[in-house]
Amino acid sequence: MHSDPQGSGTRGPGPAHSAGPGPSVSSGQKSGRSDISGGAAVDLALARDQLLSGAGRNRRLDTVSLRHALVDLHEFWLATKGAELGIRHDCGFAIVAVGGLGRREMLPYSDLDLILLHDDMDPAIVSSVADRLWYPLWDAHIKLDHSVRTVPQALQVAAHDLTAALGMLEARHIAGDIELSNLLVGGVRRQWRTGIRNRFDELIDMTETRWQRNGQIAHRAEPDLKSGRGGLRDVQLLNALSVAQLTDGMPGLGPEVPGGGLAAAHRRLLDVRTELHRVARRPRDQLRAQDADEIGAALRIGDRFDLARVLTESARTVSYSVEVGIRTAGNSLPRRGLSRLRRGPVRRPLDEGVVEHGGEVALARDAHPRRDPGLITRVAAAAAQAGLPISAATLTRLADNAPELREPWPRAALNDLLVLLGSGRRAVDVIEALDRTGLWGRLLPEWGAVRDLPPRDAVHMWTVDRHLVETAVYASELTTRVARPDLLVLGALLHDIGKGRGGDHSVVGAEIATRIGRRMGMWPSDLALLTAMVRHHLLLPHTATRRDLDDPDTVAAVVDTLGGDPLLLELLHALAEADSLATGPGVWGDWKASLIRELVRRCRMMMAGEELPHPDPIDPELARVASAGVVHVALEPRDDGRSLNATVVAPDEPGVLADTAGVLALHGLRVLSASIGSYAGNTVNTFVVIPRFGAPPAAELLRQELMRARSGDLDLLAELDAKDRAAREGRLPERPEQAVPGTYSQAPPRLIWFDASDPGQVLLELRAEDRIGLLCRLADAFERAGADVRWARVTTLGTTVVDAFCVDPRGADTKAARERLEQALLAVLPATEPEKPADTA
What ranges does the record give for the region Disordered, renumbered to this chain (predicted)? Predict the structure, then answer.
């Protein structure tokens, strides 16, 4: 709980005070502090430490037993100490717990949140009792949030301080005069119910501010289990709305829904937070990546990815429940004045059996879910089109009564699903509501394997299921570019459906998509296209960013794979864009778009029987410069207005590629691709670069720096190391909405060998975390290993790079040579923790 939940307590050693209306209570003379024994509180701290360590006779308790034991321990100490101080029935004092102890959710290192109530006692007596209660706890280094009040003072604070009111809603009697405690608990709850109309807007504003500050647990780099959206604070919010008699406390999510409902989600969040305290040995609410494996193992959940899935599932369940709770509470607010005389909301028809009522989508009075299998998709489509939420009662009624769709689906049901997917951003909340209540899984039973599944690649910002929905959202914006928009949005929804099952997710997903499409009653030709979209959804981005587009065999391979079908090529082009946009910031950009666009253009030319463009011959001016044997650097803007062509001519000597890449990186130019050539004994290397920030450096400066590097006057690796360290130390925290859960750590680097179409070449693909000057380090490793690089394609996806190098096979002709080269390359990459085998993404 936050410091001073009642609005006037103090934290840490210090005198007790009573604030607010009523007589002030002095702290007494501090000279008497030495007479206050802290021995019993020290015993409390020792007993707590033994519970946490499992020392002596105590075995290591599970999280639920540990919380119960901590509650019992603190209650026993407070009751015993209270009796020692004369805090008994009818004494005019009461000890009341709020926070974790009040909720019976005491965590290992939670603050002890207490109120010392008194019946307007003499200030000197109050001060003496408070000091004798607080000081032993402080002396034992037990963190304490406290306040001393009369009941009217406490009620006055709760009436003016919303945070204090929420804290006192959880108040529970511990020791002393139970009538005083009952007056406080009953008074606060009664005051909360009668004043909720005037405080509701403030409550929602405070909640939304907390969400913005702490982000979503399901999509946060290092989630805050307590204050993040979908966390424990939101469960307490639901309880507060229930106390106000505006909701039932568990709106629409019982134990039968996926994940076990709200109660199970609450328990899992508590378990993870409890274990986080025990692992960190301190009060901590933010789950850090380095603790995730240990916590997952202790809770017998699995590794950090398994823990991430559990957390995501729980947080999304809580988050959905809160959305429903807030909406229900807003509609249930008591009316007053003339508003009481107004008629209730009218029902506006939206579709057959579907109406709008009170700002929500509901079933019409004459709807019969048991006899209408298509009602689920019809309700979903109507909600998405109208931009309205589906009422919790409607979702519950559909879940309890709607039958399974027969196979094949009625055509109207498939049409309604396509309407839902084509409605863009409004479909997200509708699908989330269907999924949290078990209805989405009834339509797509295969969804369970990807539900809340964390990505294995750090470039993904969403769980796999949310990524599929986001891809469909972006695809809906591209429907005017394709002849079959229905297949585009459906393929977007299913393109990664094969993940989480082992094997190549594209192959597995194609089989699943065939089964789903057949169940939906798709025409055989459409089903074949859908299957091909899922099977080959990575073909265009992989080929465009990792192969030589000037090679006709590259284009021919794509055309052959697609069977020469221009419609499939068109759909895959749009799907590649939607997939990239839905992956995360920076994954789709001008450079990637231009590469895929060029590949698609060449494929269309080949499908139409036209001749492919040939690479331009070397520029005569460059040929003249190369013949002269001098160092030459040129920078020319490209058509996209952002990137540039950096052409470097230098004598063909070992290390020239590494030095060139290093100079470019040192001056803030990020390399997107590199083409390595030679002429008249000189290297002619062309790089496509983009400035990381600001204007590009002058070409003459780059030429002088390259000459310094070639002569040994400039230690590029040392300069790049210093710049890399400075960048890492000064890196800003990730924005919550752009981050991935902390348990999704950076995947380890991977090296993959491919056979090129040219028998005189071998392709090596590298996937790793990016760093400043990475291409320079890799080129240096290639050259030290004696491998000649013909061309390179460099792609940066967020913090991850996917680089493809065409290598002369003489440097990688044996297994031993390849292993030596791999070791040299891995040595310059950032080290990461190992992980489970993952699908290619």
Answer: 1-35
